[in-house]
Amino acid sequence: MQTLYYDKESDSTTWDFSKWTPHVVVINLGQNDYWGNYSQSGAQDNYINFAQTLRGEYPDAHIILALGSMNATQSSSPWPGYLKYAVSELNSTYSDPKVYSLIFPHSGNPHPTIARHADMADQLTEFIQNNIPGFGNGPDTNADGYVNNLDLAVLGSQWRKTDC
Q: What does the DSSP assignment read for 17-82?
C-alpha cells in the first residue's frame, strides 16, 4: 500500500497549498526507490506524475527534481537516467520549461554527513543561481540574454513587495 505525504501538514491535517506560494520547489526523490523493484517506465512515469501534481498546486513555480548523493547516483545506477528522462518529457512533451534535474555526485558514503549536506546545499544554491531567472542572474532579471527596459519592468513589478 502506498501512502502519500506530500500534501500533509500532520498525520491528521491536510496541507493548505494556498497558505504559501513558493518560487522554487525542490524534490529529492528516488534514493529509497533505488532499493525497490521499479521498472524503468514505472519510475519515469512516477516522476512525471508527481511533478504534474505539484504543477497543479504551484502553476508558476520552478520545480527541481533532484537525486541525492547516495547509491542512487553511483555510476551503475539507472536512476539518474530515469530522472533526466522524466524532466526531458516534462520540458518537451508537456511543454513545461520550469522543471529541472539536479543529480548530486555520488559521495561514496552510505549516508550524507553534515559536511556533505552543506556541500549539497552549496551545489543547489549555485544551480538555482545559474538556471532560474531572478536568482543570481544579475541584472538580466527575465533571463532573455539582454539587459534592457524589460528587466527594469520586472524589477519595477517587484518594487516594495514584502517578499521580494
A: TTS---SEEEEE--TGGGGS---HHHHHHHHHHHHHHHHHH-TT-EEEEEE-SSGGGSTT-SHHHH
